[in-house]
Specification:
The protein is an alpha/beta fold and about 425 residues long. It is built from 10 helices and 27 strands. The model has no long low-confidence stretch (mean pLDDT about 90).
């Protein structure tokens, strides 16, 4: 029987560092680049590599993620492809929720229908990168590895919170430390000169190989590990306990990779997409990023000025000034408004005239951004209603300050989902 590749996308935990963006959705469901969701990245990477048997493991705030996947990824019945959602469930074997990445995979072993010789590709659902998974799979087979871990060479000044590994020149992993903070330990884990020679555009800092949270497991190795190692997480527990017992190898990825773990990293990753040559290319037709087809009209722009802006489908922008902004689907922006360094996630629906009349009687602003607003360094979550003459900026605001639906996190002002910001508000 021909072996197959089973792709497993981790649907994420509570996403505390991305709160309040994860208040009503899980991390992989957070909107990205105006029209996508974070989960579209790993799924599209799989599909572009010809991998179409994909499971998404979910647990917290899953409704919007489930709806997005069901509306986006439908395959014909003859190709054998699918994107299946596996939510945490109570069974006779156990009643607990997922305790970590490894435990989530363990609780669903009976769903995968895996055969001897099959491989598992385990992926995070909240990272931005473009990887040809065929290469890591080919290397896994060529080296005879039991486990292959994708790694990114990172300057030691940027490795906080990442698992680091010491790798021989033949790519075999000899040491793995999850999130070290001891400078001497980090120094011992620095990458060899031979491996460093293959890294593009290195800077003067020392580099370490950081785990990307992307794993290839042989079926038997994975099942044995999850049955015999009482561990909840791959990085913290499973990988360190397998070290020296099975063949662990590293696959060094030399492209752009961003772990969307915090409000600041999410904000900056979106704004970098507005650059003339962004580090992540959504325009590469050989590596299409798929998402939900909405069949929206083209955006309508009536005057104004634009500098480094992304405007998604279905928007109506009237005489506004946009600088370094990402504008999501169906967004409405009023005349005279100025946005700079803003990620606006858009709207789930167009506002009907009868709905508009009823809300006007209650002095509730129109959906979108009103006239003569000035907003900077901000994330505006979906379906926000911002009235006329509003001024919003995190400048000189303390961290974690709040005023109703407006707050500051990681130095970024956030207007929460479904927020109502009355006209003339200043924050």
């Amino acid at each position: 029987m021909k072996s197959k590749i089973i792709s497993v996308v981790m649907g994420g935990g509570r996403g505390k560092r991305l709160h309040p963006l994860t208040k009503m959705r899980c991390k992989p469901a957070v909107p990205l680049a105006g029209k996508y969701r974070l989960v579209d990245i790993p799924i599209s990477n799989c599909l572009n590599a010809g991998l179409n048997q994909i499971y998404v493991l979910t647990q917290f705030n899953t409704a919007s993620l489930h709806r997005h996947i069901q509306e986006s990824y439908n395959f014909d019945p003859f190709g054998g492809g699918f994107v299946d959602i596996l939510s945490a469930e109570q069974t006779e074997a156990g009643e607990s929720w997922y305790q970590g990445t490894a435990d989530a995979v363990r609780q669903n072993l009976h769903h995968y229908n895996a055969n001897d010789g099959d491989l598992f590709l385990i992926l995070s659902g909240d990272q931005l990168y473009n990887m040809d998974f065929r290469r890591i799979i080919d290397q896994h087979r060529e080296t005879g590895a039991d486990v292959t871990i994708a790694a990114k060479a990172m300057p030691i000044t940027h490795i906080e919170g990442l698992g680091l590994m010491r790798v021989e020149d033949n790519l075999e992993i000899k040491e793995f430390v999850e999130k070290p903070d001891d400078a001497n330990v980090i120094k011992e884990l620095s990458i060899s000169d031979k491996l460093m020679a293959g890294i593009s555009n290195p800077h003067g800092d020392k580099y370490c190989l950081a785990s990307m949270g992307i794993y290839v497991f042989g079926k038997q190795t994975l099942y044995d590990a999850l049955h015999h190692i009482n561990a909840a997480d791959f990085g913290r527990e499973v990988i360190p306990q397998l070290l020296g017992k099975v063949g662990l190898y590293s696959y060094i990825f030399d492209g752009y990779w961003e772990d969307i773990g915090s409000v600041r990293s999410f904000f900056e990753a979106n704004l970098r997409l507005t650059e003339p040559l962004p580090p992540f290319n959504f325009f590469d037709q050989d590596r299409v990023i798929y998402t939900h087809p909405r069949y929206l009209p083209a955006s309508k722009i009536n005057g104004g000025s634009f500098e480094n802006a992304i405007v998604a489908d279905g928007c109506i922008i009237s005489g506004a000034s946009l600088k370094r902004t990402v504008i999501g689907v169906r967004s409405v922006i009023g005349e005279g408004s100025h946005l700079e360094n803003v990620v606006m996630m858009g709207q789930d629906h167009f506002e009907r005239s009868d709905e508009r009349d009823n809300l006007s009687e209650m002095n509730i602003p129109k959906i979108g951004i009103g006239k003569n607003c000035h907003i900077s360094n901000a994330i505006i979550d979906k379906n926000a209603r911002i009235g006329d003459n509003v001024r919003l900026s995190p400048k000189d605001k303390p961290e974690h300050c709040e005023n109703g639906d407006i707050m500051v996190r990681d130095g970024v002002l956030i207007v929460s989902k479904d927020a109502i910001v009355p006209q003339d508000t200043v924050f």
